[in-house]
Amino acid sequence: MTTSSNTPAIEQATTGSAEPELSASELASTVLAYHDGDHVAAIKALLEDTQHLRYQLALTQAAMSKGLTRGWVPSFER
Question: pTM of this prediction?
Fold first, then answer.
């Protein structure tokens, strides 16, 4: 992976800034540009990120009391 000029767009879209969110198409283009157009590397990175986030959600679910969230339980599915 190499850093490209598109990286700030990803960070801006995921940090909750007041800037408008990128569309799915714009995000896909940004991810591909970050990986120098390598589709396999882009998909692999996204799958690894998804796996990591699911693991983090499982840890959070195990450590979090239901009273803290007033009965809300995180879901692995959309």
Answer: 0.59
